[in-house]
Amino acid sequence: MTEIWGLTGGIATGKSTVSHWLHQAGLTVIDADLIARQVVAPGTTGLTKIVATFGESYCQPDGSLNRRKLGNLVFHDATQLSRLEAITQPLIQTEITRQLASAKARHDPVVVIDAPTFFEVGYLIDLVDHVLVVATDATTQQQRLQKRDGLTAEGALARIAQQWPIARKVAAADVVIDNRGTIAQTRQQVVKWLDTNKFGRSNQIK
């Protein structure tokens, strides 16, 4: 029987690093961020609908989505974000459901659904047995996001505000990975979680 875990955290809390480690350890990881990019790639129904909704200016000269411009719009306007999610979320949900069904058909022992807005979208909680949250403090989160994406403080806070507060996610988690310290300390927690549950091969994490 397949055991299904949700993996989430706030933007720039270190979730992607943990997800990478779990993949290295041999766990099946369904990456909602990757799927979100795939469903709006050039030539897709998703991108066609986005252009029809928001305009041609949200497309790059090479035909790809202008992510920065669209992000600047939707993360400062809840109505526009809702319009975007009405296009993308059904497509993402369909692909996550398809990948999960494939993993179950293969009898994969553990599947991790990695999603930054795991709680916010609603439906994912019904697909999993447990939830693991990667957390850090608010100040560190903001600083990491500004540095990573080249954002102003205002821009970083606008993106953070679109997600549940970290404390709320932590309260709803079955397991919390504390990423306020060094990367080695975070890795040690992940290894312990894998070994305790006898998931994958923790010695393959680099």
From TrEMBL:
<keyword id="KW-0173">Coenzyme A biosynthesis</keyword>
<dbReference type="GO" id="GO:0005737">
    <property type="term" value="C:cytoplasm"/>
</dbReference>
<keyword id="KW-0418">Kinase</keyword>
<comment type="similarity">
    <text>Belongs to the CoaE family.</text>
</comment>
<dbReference type="GO" id="GO:0005524">
    <property type="term" value="F:ATP binding"/>
</dbReference>
<keyword id="KW-0808">Transferase</keyword>
<dbReference type="InterPro" id="IPR027417">
    <property type="entry name" value="P-loop_NTPase"/>
</dbReference>
<keyword id="KW-0067">ATP-binding</keyword>
<feature type="binding site">
    <location>
        <begin position="12"/>
        <end position="17"/>
    </location>
    <ligand>
        <name>ATP</name>
    </ligand>
</feature>
<comment type="function">
    <text>Catalyzes the phosphorylation of the 3'-hydroxyl group of dephosphocoenzyme A to form coenzyme A.</text>
</comment>
<dbReference type="Pfam" id="PF01121">
    <property type="entry name" value="CoaE"/>
</dbReference>
<dbReference type="GO" id="GO:0015937">
    <property type="term" value="P:coenzyme A biosynthetic process"/>
</dbReference>
<keyword id="KW-0547">Nucleotide-binding</keyword>
<dbReference type="InterPro" id="IPR001977">
    <property type="entry name" value="Depp_CoAkinase"/>
</dbReference>
<comment type="pathway">
    <text>Cofactor biosynthesis; coenzyme A biosynthesis; CoA from (R)-pantothenate: step 5/5.</text>
</comment>
<dbReference type="GO" id="GO:0004140">
    <property type="term" value="F:dephospho-CoA kinase activity"/>
</dbReference>
<keyword id="KW-0963">Cytoplasm</keyword>
<protein>
    <recommendedName>
        <fullName>Dephospho-CoA kinase</fullName>
        <ecNumber>2.7.1.24</ecNumber>
    </recommendedName>
</protein>
